[in-house]
Amino acid sequence: MKNEEELIEFVKPYYEDKDIMHNMWHMELVKKAIDKILKISNYNVDYDSLITAMYFHGFIYSDEDKIREWLKKQNCEATKIEKIIEIAWESQRSEIPKTTEGKILHDAHVLEGGKNYLIVKTLITGSIRGQSLQKTLKYMKDNVLNKNKCYLPETIPLCNEMNKATNKFYDDLIEGIN
Question: Which of 99, 124, 121 lies closest to 110 in space, CA to CA?
Answer without folding.
Answer: 121
